[in-house]
Amino acid sequence: MYDIYVQIMKNLVWIVIFSLFSLLPALITIKTFALRGNNVENTEQDTSLYTERGPIFDRRGNILAMQVNSWNVGLRLIDTENTEEVLQTLSRILDIPYQELDQKLSDPYKYVQVKKHISKEEYEKILTLKKENKLVGVQFKEKAWRKYPGNESLAHLIGYFGEEGRGLDGIESSFDKELRSTGSKTLGNSIYLTIDSILQSSIEEIVYETLKESKSSFITTILMDGKTGEILAYVSLPSFDLNRYYTYTQDRLSNRIIRYNYEPGSVFKVFSLASLLDTGNIHVNSRFDASSPYVNTRYGFTIQDIWYPGVITSSEIIKFSSNVGISRAMEHIDAPRLYQYLRAFGFGEKTNIQLPGESSGVFKDPSTWSARSKPTIALGQEISVTAMQLVSAATVFANKGNLLEPQLIKKIVSPEGKIIYKSSAEKKRKVLKPETATQILEMMNLTTTPGGTAHRLRTEGIQISAKTGTAQVFDRENNEYSKDTFIASTLSIIPSDNPRLIIYSAIHDPKSGEIYGGRTTAPMIRKMLNSILPYLGFLEHPKKDTENGEAYTRAQKSAVKLHIPELYESYLGLSKREVWPLFINTDVKLQLEGNGTVVRQSPEPGSRVKENTLLTLYLE
């Protein structure tokens, strides 16, 4: 009997112990909730705060994207006191209309996120009032977030970071795995782009001016190192603020340089004529009658020009951008052979640029071509391309007939400083004979001479190969080419005798009166060249700054501004991980003492920066 009693007692003890362990998570949750209720900040932390996504830099180490802590603010009306006063206060601090807040919070029992990623100033104002018990019930949710110091600069290229902790577009998306911290690592890899922020800011400024002057829908510009395929500048305007990407329409967010397909117009003639020249069926001095429209009586179609220069050579087809001349020249190549060459240039396929969502354009098989297709394609219609495809195809001329893949990543560096990837020129395939590529460059150089369509691009001190284009946009509703919507473009390769740079710009739907590439994009590119070529060492300084008598271009002024500040800024309140990327590759000597956030700095904010001065930041 006694043994049975002992066994019963043992079982009861185990039942009690098991019950306590079962209730432990609930007790912890209740305790945590109670503690949060007593915490004046009411801050819920995201687990991603304990890991850090890797930063993104330009080729010189200028920071383009970095992880910071951010706060979302929200509440349940049932938890508040003096509801109307709370809403009016939040409306004022967060710059949200009272009526909008009132509508959002129509259900008093539902927690509503009022605003995402509030500024530090907004956070501190709300926190101060909470400590005074004036905003009871208002809660913060602290999250890891991305800060993009350039705001709208390079927005389509860099891409953005979503609420769920993944990159949603651009480099943030295509290199999401590399940027993430994985396994035991608390910091992701650092990615260095091929972009030069100095060139980028200089070109952006000029494109922005042209966007306003031309009253166009948008403008795209790509600057590439023709020998390596590295993209040095990537401009698509209008852009959007990466820090507030969620406030824009999908159309504004779209990466037009790699996704927008359009008929390229006369710029395309250089690729068509290069294909024909490479066959040996014609040569640079072959002559074609361009004195009147091209009429095909058998199939009943006519191709016209703005003017008729008479009998012209192959070179003059490019110089004058003759539709009739290129149409007559195309009689010397069959459709399958032309298609084969143009596909070899990369048209109709993706360039393999390191970005998501790239379009392959539209280039139909010759079995579907009509009698008119061959000459029409040769002059840039019946084929759709992307801006990136055109720049990529131009590498064939800059590399003795070899096609290069475009490059966006300069290197990837691990948290330990090990280089785990480094870019190199990738030759995709042989397209032309070296002599054909040279001949095309010489032909394109003629366009910048008097009488050529790109004569406004002529720049003293350097030889430029160029081709302009003016494309009509096809109106699908009326099934005809629009009479008032155009794309003006120019492709430039510099210098002609030893190509290093490729620039392609397209102005979409200009409305200021000028529609031709030679009158719009060519002068714009000339401004770019005057700005960037001295910085790159191709030209002497073209003009002097009247304020200090020193020769500076826009690019060089940007270089000084980005390289080192004139006055020390305030770094108070920043964490170590927010501070260190700001000083990579600058002349400022930095010393960090302690951990936490910056509470003091020496020299003090506003002090003038002097060479070799040590900046010490004290963290607690």
Write structural notes for this entry.
The protein has 620 residues and is an alpha+beta fold. 33% of the residues lie in helices and 22% in strands. It has 20 helices and 22 strands. The strands form 6 sheets. Strands 1, 2, 3, 4, 5, 6, 14 and 15 form an 8-stranded mixed beta sheet that branches.
Distance between the termini: 68 Å
Can you name the CATH architecture of the largest domain?
Answer: 3-Layer(aba) Sandwich
The total beta strand count reads 22
Q: What general form does the structure show? A: elongated
Quickly count the helices.
20
What's the CATH first level of the largest domain?
Alpha Beta
Percent helix, as a range, is 25-40%
Rounded average pLDDT? 85
List keywords for this structure.
Beta-lactamase; 20 helices; 5-stranded antiparallel beta sheet; alpha+beta; 22% strand; 8-stranded mixed beta sheet; 620 residues; disordered N terminus; elongated; 4 domains; Penicillin-binding protein 2a (Domain 2)
Give a concise summary.
With 620 residues, the chain is α+β, with helices and mostly antiparallel strands. Helix content is 33%, strand content 22%. Helix 8 packs antiparallel against helix 18, helix 8 crosses helix 19 and helix 12 packs across helix 17.
Q: How are the elements arranged and paired?
A:
Blueprint: H1 2-38, E1 43-45, E2 56-57, E3 63-75, H2 83-94, H3 98-104, E4 112-118, H4 120-131, E5 139-147, H5 155-158, H6 170-174, H7 176-179, E6 190-193, H8 197-214, E7 218-225, E8 231-237, H9 250-253, H10 256-259, H11 269-279, E9 287-290, E10 294-296, E11 301-303, E12 310-313, H12 314-320, H13 323-329, H14 335-344, H15 373-378, H16 387-398, E13 402-404, E14 409-413, E15 419-422, E16 427-430, H17 434-446, E17 465-475, E18 480-494, E19 501-508, H18 521-536, H19 554-563, H20 576-579, E20 589-594, E21 598-602, E22 614-619
Parallel strand pairs: 1-5, 2-6, 20-22
Antiparallel strand pairs: 2-3, 3-4, 3-5, 6-14, 7-8, 7-19, 9-12, 10-11, 13-16, 14-15, 17-18, 18-19, 21-22
